[in-house]
Amino acid sequence: MAKWTAQHEAPEPLEGPVVATVVGGTIIWFVLFLVQLPFYGWFADRGMLWWVWTPAAGAALGLFGIWYARGREAAIKRHKEQQQAAGTAAEPHPEV
User: Fold this and answer.
1) Alpha-carbon radius of gyration of the chain
2) Tens digits of per-residue pLDDT, 13-60?
3) What's the CA gap between 42 and 36, in Å, rounded?
4) How far is CA 75 from CA 52, 72, 81, in A?
5) How does pLDDT run across 48-75, given as a tens digit for each residue?
6) Contact 36/52 with Cβ under 8 angstroms?
7) Nearest-5° angle of CA 54, CA 41, CA 38?
8) Nearest Cα to Cα of residue 58 among 88, 80, 42, 36
9) Which residues contact residue 87 at a Cβ distance below 8 angstroms, ignoring those fewer than 6 apart?
10) What b/e sequence results for 58-81 when a residue is b if at least 16 CB atoms lie within 10 Å of its CB, and e otherwise?
C-alpha cells in the first residue's frame, strides 16, 4: 500500500471566540439539565435516567472546558507578548 502524501498545504486553523463558545455550550447543557430535572420520576419509571444525567455531565465537562480554554487563550496571549518583546514575529505553525 502506497503512502499518502498531501497535494497542497493544510489551511491555517480557525481561531475565534473559543471561550465564549465553550461558555455558551456549557450554559445550554446546564439549562437542558434543569429543564429535565422536574421530570426525574418520569425518566426513572421508564429506565431512561441517562437523559437527565447526560446534560449534567455535559455541564460538568463544560466547566473543565472553560478553565482549559481560558488557560489556552492566556498562554497564546503571553506567547505573542513575549515574541513582540523579543522583536521577532510570532510564527504560530512552523513549516513542515
Assistant:
1) 21
2) 888 899 999 999 999 999 999 999 999 999 999 999 999 999 999 999
3) 10
4) 35, 5, 10
5) 999 999 999 999 999 999 999 999 999 9
6) yes
7) 70
8) 36
9) none
10) bbeebeebeeebeeeeeeeeeeee
> Exposed, middle or buried: residue 22 (CB in 10 Å: 0-12, 13-18, 19+)?
buried
**CB neighbours of residue 7 within 10 Å:** 5
2's grid cell: 502506497
Cell 504560530 sits on residue: 92
Closest CA to 21 of 54, 68, 82, 89: 68
> Which cell numbers hold the place of 23?
461558555
For residue 52, give Cα distances in angstroms to 19, 23, 46, 64, 80.
Answer: 25, 20, 12, 20, 42
Q: What is the rounded distance in angstroms from the CA atom of residue 75 to the CA atom of residue 36?
A: 37
What's the rounded Cα separation, in Å, for the pair 33 and 26? Answer: 11
